[in-house]
Every structure is written in C-alpha cells, then in structure tokens.
Amino acid sequence: MMRKSILLSLVVCCLLAFQTPGFGEDAPDPEQLVAEHVKAIGAPELLAKIKAVTFVGDAEVNFIQGMHGHMQGVAMVVSEGANIAVMLKFGDVNYPGEYFAFDGKDVTVGHIKPGLKSPIADFLFRYNKMMKQGIVGGVFSNAWPLLDVQNHPKARMKAGKDKVDKVELYSLEYQPEDWYGNMKIRMYFEPETFRHVRTEYKVRTDNDMTTGFNPDNPSGGLMSADEENPANDMLIGRVKGESYYTLVEKFEDFKKVGALTLPHRYVLHYTIDGTAQSGFIADWTLSARQIGFNAQNIDPKVFQAEK
C-alpha cells in the first residue's frame, strides 16, 4: 500500500509538472489572460483595421449621495487613434451634462458652471493619465492598451481571481509606466468568455483640501468655497483629511457588431468618501443605439471639451 501511495504521488507530480501553463484553479497567466480577452472581442486582423470607434445612444444619471436627482439625455463616445471624447447631455440648467476629452496632447473637461467642474470631471482632469493612457472607455477607446500590450512593455500586470458582487471574475492589476503612486487600477474579466466587464480606479489621499488640486500642477487649480451655497462644496469636492476616490467602469449587455462582440451598456460609478464629510455617489449609464467604426472626417475639435 505504501508503494502504491508513493507511485500515485509521483504520477500526480509528473502530471502537474507537465501541465500546460494557463488557466487552472489558481491565478491565470496575465499575458494569456490579455490574449484571450482580445480574441473575445474579435479576430486580431479585424481589430487592427479599426482606426476610429463611435458610440451613440441614450444617457441617464442617478445622483445617490451628496446630490439627488435622476435625469435622462443623450450620450456619445468618439475615439480615433489616441484621442477620445465622452459626451453626456441632459439639458438641465443646473447640470447640463459631462464632457471628457483627450486630443492626443491635453485632457480637457466640461464645466457645469463657469469655473466649476463636477466631481467626476474633476477626478478625470486631475488624474488625466487615465485618459492619456487609453484606459478610460475600455474597448471603446481606440488606444485601449490591452489591444497591443507589446507597445506597453514597461506596464506591470498581475493576474488573479476575485469575487465582485458574489460573482467570481479574473482580475488584472494594471500599472502603466510613470503612474500615480496613490492610484490602483484593477480590471475584471468573465472566466467563461474573457470579456472585460469592469475597471476600478482607487485613490487614497491625505489632507486633500479640494479635488480641484491637480497632481501634475500642484501650484494651481484650487477653487474657493461657495459661501452662498455650501452644497456646491460637494461639486467642487472639498475634502479635508483622509479621502477615498473610486471610479468604476462597468461594461454590460454584450452583442455582436459585425464580426466583433462589444458591450452596449457603459456605466460610470463614482464615489468620494472621507473623514470630513458624508461623501458623494453617482451613476452615469450610457446605452448604445448604434456603434460604428472608421467614421470619416471626424472634427478634431470633438476631442477638446473646452474649445
């Protein structure tokens, strides 16, 4: 019996030693995870031919904490090369919408009032490398780095498994070169399909007097308090002491668009939490009516929120 037990152990060890590396019960290999994700979108030769992506549809916003209300409007996402623009219009005098854009050089965002950015716009403006690196927008970004990891050799990737809302997903910690020391990025993928379904950006800061602080320009960008309307301090994002900022992108409702499989619902969930105030929570949902590729004569001004 002892000899049989030893022999069985040797057989198991040999099988494990010669097992093809990849996806098992443990964490997957990050390079293979990325490769499977790309194949889940479509054939690499087709993806290589796409130079521009357009997403047109409906938008809604739901303010949960810090502000309250629900609005419906229209949405558009345009991406060409490294450039991207995300536009949401609600037509409300107090909250007209959002506009985030990168023109290949600068990130600009729209203002809800003169000199006043919304909390999510200010976050994207402050941490503008998220858009410059092509990460924001996921597969709707023509510069989505996972489509061509060979051109990002110094990016750090670590794969694993996590449960999100009681659903087990593959996770990928992704850190580009020259990144923010206090921001963590984690992407999530369905184990069965390898579709990218979620990206989380998390930041923790100390003594953050205002979200108007730009980490790339520490001497500028500060905003004064609105003494007549203290609620505007939440729009400005003034947080003294320890602060936590979390932006979550969700990609849902996957459907075929020609030979590609793409999400048709794009959700932005943004929260601010800290020791000095109650916080901020809101959701923006973009639902596609039409997704197209390689549109001609896209006006470069589209990629400038402040023209």
Briefly say what this structure is.
The chain is of the alpha+beta class.
Architecture overview:
The chain has a single domain, classed as Clam (outer membrane lipoprotein receptor (LolB), chain A). The protein contains six helices and twelve strands. A hairpin with a 2-residue loop joins strand 10 and strand 11. The longest helix has 16 residues. The protein starts with a helix and ends in a 14-residue tail after the last strand. About 16% of the residues have low confidence.
CATH topology: outer membrane lipoprotein receptor (LolB), chain A
Largest sheet, in brief, is: 12 strands, antiparallel
Count of individual beta strands: 12
Helix/strand/pairing category: alpha+beta
Fraction of residues in helices? 10-25%
Q: Please give the alpha-carbon distance between the first and last residues.
A: 81 Å
Please tell me the overall pLDDT: 84
Number of helices: 6
Q: Poorly predicted ranges (pLDDT <50, ≥5 residues)?
A: 4-23, 210-239
Shape: globular
How many separate structural domains?
1
**What is the oligomer described by this structure?**
single chain
What is the CATH C-level name? Mainly Beta
Give Rg in angstroms: 22 Å
CATH architecture label: Clam
Physical arrangement of strands within the biggest beta sheet: 5-4-3-2-1-12-11-10-9-8-7-6
Walk me through the topology:
Elements: H1 2-17, H2 30-41, H3 44-47, E1 52-65, E2 69-80, E3 83-89, E4 97-102, E5 107-109, H4 119-126, H5 129-132, E6 156-164, E7 167-175, E8 183-189, E9 196-205, H6 232-236, E10 243-257, E11 260-274, E12 280-293
